[in-house]
């Protein structure tokens, strides 16, 4: 799940990308309080990232054909899962917990699972 947080101030446009899942944008005074030093903006971004740490992603390569891929992870939460077979994004049955993702295909399959 991507989350976008906007901090609008009268300053040059700055975009801080912490990870593919967290984007913090700073734009010029369209709404909200005017002003805001670069230090204040940096502090706001740092506070946000401390309270909402970016999720680290992981890629699982299933090299041996299998109808069931069991993928352990250490995210401590249920990740989003994107699947690729032969370079194409595909759908399959996915069951996820805070420690494991299980992907089920109708036939033995190789490919990639990207967890975010």
TrEMBL record:
Give the source's domain of life in one word.
Bacteria
Protein name per Swiss-Prot or TrEMBL? Uncharacterized protein
């Amino acid at each position: 799940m991507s989350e976008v947080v906007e901090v609008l101030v009268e300053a040059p446009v700055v975009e801080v990308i912490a990870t593919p899942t967290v984007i913090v944008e700073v734009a010029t005074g369209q709404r909200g309080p005017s002003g805001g030093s670069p230090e204040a903006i940096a502090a706001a971004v740092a506070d946000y990232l401390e309270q909402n740490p970016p999720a680290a992603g992981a890629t699982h390569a299933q090299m041996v054909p299998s109808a069931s891929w069991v993928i352990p992870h250490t995210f401590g939460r249920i990740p989003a899962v994107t699947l690729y077979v032969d370079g194409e994004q595909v759908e399959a049955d996915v069951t996820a917990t805070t420690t494991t993702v299980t992907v089920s295909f109708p036939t033995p399959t190789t490919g990639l699972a990207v967890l975010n």
